[in-house]
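Weekly structure sync, notes
Attendees: PL (lead), two postdocs, one rotation student
Agenda item 3: pending single-chain targets
PL asked that the sequence for the first pending target be pasted directly into the notes so everyone works from the same version. It is reproduced below exactly as submitted, 535 residues in total.
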Amino acid sequence: MASSHFRLLATALILYASRCTVLALNASLPISPPGNSQALSPTLLSFSIEQDRWPDWAGVWSRNEFTHDALLNYAALTGHPPNIRVGADSEDHTFWSPTVTVEDSSFPPPNSITPYPEATSITVGNAYYSLSRFLPRGTHMTWGVNLGADNVTNAVNMAKAIVGAFRSGIVKASGVVLDRIEIGNEADLYKNNGLRPSNWTVQEYVADWISVAGPVGEAAGVSGRDGPVTLQGAAFAGQGFTPRQIFDLGILESAPGKAISVISQHRYSAAFCNGGDFPLISFMNKAAVRSNLTVFNADIAATHAKGLLYILGETNSIACHGAPGVSNTAGAALWAIDYTLQAATLGIKETYFHEGVGFKYNFIQPVTLNRSTVDGSPLNPPSPPHVQPSYYAGLLINTLIGRTGTAQIVELSIDDSNVSGYAAFEHGRLIRAAFINLHAWLASSTGTRPSVHIDLDFARGGAADTQGDVSAFWGRRATARRVVIAHADDLANLTWAGQSYETPDARASGPSVVEHVTLDEGIDLRATEAILLSF
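Predicted structure, written out during the meeting:
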């Protein structure tokens, strides 16, 4: 931030108390949103669902109650259920057929690296899309259409089936809404996965996309970017193709391009497609979180300059369903908090965390699993539906966002390689703050668990603030809720505000623990822990 009033400055003071090393930090929080604050969308944390396992997530003959309850927990905190995108790799292997009722898919055999592989062939019917009715009321959706097959007829048939489902009485009555259609998933990788020639270029992509998106848009009744249904653009895997390139090539001036309302890019920190070793300590890294996101700054700016929204339409920790010992750990929950909130500060409206069935990085495992997500070995007994550690990230994030729909966010500059901080504002006033200590305390760690002590201070945020406003803030009462973790490499047994969500129905268990904070005494934050303050 431009002003030192908005910085958290680590002092050189090392305190020794009860044989525990405590680093003292001075946290200065603006009482009103500074000029570089960004809007906090109620659906900042949303989900992308692998298309081949969509019926497992939604339910077929009746709704999947576990999925429904897990999503409702999030909706209760912001007033909006997470947005849902259905697509990803299997989007470009999906075909519509009038003879299939719901879905008929072929899956390759599992292996130790990919215990739950994606389908190589998916055939769906109209009822497949009508399963959208089983999501929580108020859910907004994006549906993917196959571009990879280079089959306009199939793409049009998919689009007709999608909009037909959402125009049906049964889906309308559910209150679930179609926002966008995405045409093609990660087309920048087509030249690597056999869907296009190895010398395929971004220029050819633009022409190809226009040739398919035009008929798709007409079939779906898409008339422009004002909706009610629009198109989602790009959906690129990395920087092989970029939004800036397709803008320069005139995609937005094309007839279907004029219906693009949102630009999507995808991001993972690494890939586990062929296995590998990914140390959790290096993953829980504040600098790495920022470098993984700031690569998109130019694309974000270019997208906003065109009057469009920018999202991470598919993201998570490590690509190819996650890495064991990292993506499925408690440490990944803290990473997800920092990553998601950091994305918001950069002007990324929503982050769609990718989910499947049996994926290591899932927030939610929606159905019973018969083999291990780690190595594919048989499970006896099977593992019932459950939330994984990253689910707790969403509880803190959505509590920070709140229910007013007016929240704004700014990062607090912290001169510490492990600790991140964010302030949230409503109606022009500081209302909540979050601090994350990414220092990885492992099951193998020895000695006394370190912590930081954060002394709170308040400062003017905008020109209208007076010193009297700042002084008055000290009179506020404050409370704290924590994500409590025993070890960063634990696979379970987290709590949020004292409660566990690792229950048969994903509902909170145990009494809520809300701490009362004396502002002039500050707070303590252990390694591998996160805290939310409410003022």
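Discussion points:
- The chain is about 25% helix and 30% strand.
- The first helix runs from residue 54 to 58.
Action: rotation student to compare against the earlier draft before next sync.
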